[in-house]
Amino acid sequence: MMNDTDYLNNQFLIAMPTLADSHFSQTAIYLCQHNADGALGIVINRQSDMKLKEIFMQMDIPISSMSAAETPVYMGGPVQQERGFVLHTTGGQWAITLPISDTMSLTTSRDIIEAIAKGEGPERYFVALGYAGWGKGQLEQEFLANSWLNTPFGEPILFDTPIDLRWRMAASQIGIDINKLTHGAGHA
Questions:
Q1: CA dihedral 6, 98, 32, 133 (to 10 degrees)
Q2: 30 in Cβ contact with 44 (< 8 Å)
Q3: What gap in Å lies between CA 181 and CA 188, rounded to an integer?
Q4: How far is CA 108 from the centre of its chain?
Q5: C-alpha angle 179/23/18, rounded to 5°?
Q6: Would you place residue 182 in the very low, low, confident or very high pLDDT band (cuts 50, 70, 90)?
Q7: Greatest Cα pair distance in the chain
Q8: Residue 88: alpha-carbon gap to chain centroid
Q9: For a tag on the chain, would you pick the N or C end, based on fewer CB atoms within 10 A?
Q10: What are 24-69's pLDDT values in tens digits?
Q11: Is the pLDDT at 185 greater than 70, yes or no?
């Protein structure tokens, strides 16, 4: 039985180089919720071809912030790809928000998208379609199979690091060059 300190909320999951699943090969995932029932995370290094203005238009939301309109939308994972997920710095009152830490939250309600379109959204945000999900015990089994490495969450990696460097930078936080790991890494 795991206790609360064994869960990996508010951490990055780094796909090991041997993970061949096309959905997750070379991904960095921000783990938003991990408990006895499973886990939910958002892939942070797979950009879609879409900009936020396309979501605003699909939702009939007027746009007054041109910088928000040009913000890239990411592919957050293979589950519910038609649904938007906003990772953001904590603050504001939104209808459906999951607090992840004192500084980060995940919101799925329309009100945050409307606020972003007006330039009144959270200070920093990341919009993704879909999420990565694991059932009860599934993520733990994937760790035992050396599919993932976990590292501390870092806002600069999510918000300031170029997309093509996020996977490597998240691993390098703990002194690991992800490109040098092999099949046997992680076994004691």
A1: 100
A2: yes
A3: 14
A4: 13
A5: 30
A6: low
A7: 55
A8: 10
A9: C
A10: 999 999 999 999 999 999 999 999 999 999 999 999 999 998 889 9
A11: no
In the numeric block, which tokens belong to residue 120?
């009144």
What the block records as the tokens of 188 is: 């004691």
Give the distance from CA 71 to its chain's centroid. 16
pLDDT above 80 for 87: yes
DSSP structure class, residue 16: -
Residues forming a β-bridge with 19: none
- Report whether 180 contacts 168 (CB < 8 A): no
Sign, CA torsion 28/17/24/9: negative
Strand 148-152 to 11-15 pairing:
antiparallel
pLDDT for the residue numbered 122: 94
Q: What is the 3-state secondary structure (H, E, C) of 80-102?
A: EEEEEEEEEECCCCCCCEEECCC
Other CB atoms within a 10 A radius of the CB of residue 50 amount to 15
Which class for 146: exposed (0-12), middle (13-18), buried (19 or more C-beta within 10 A)?
middle
Which of the four pLDDT bands, split at 50, 70 and 90, describes residue 188?
Answer: very low
Six-digit token string for 47: 């950009």
Name the pTM for this structure.
Answer: 0.91
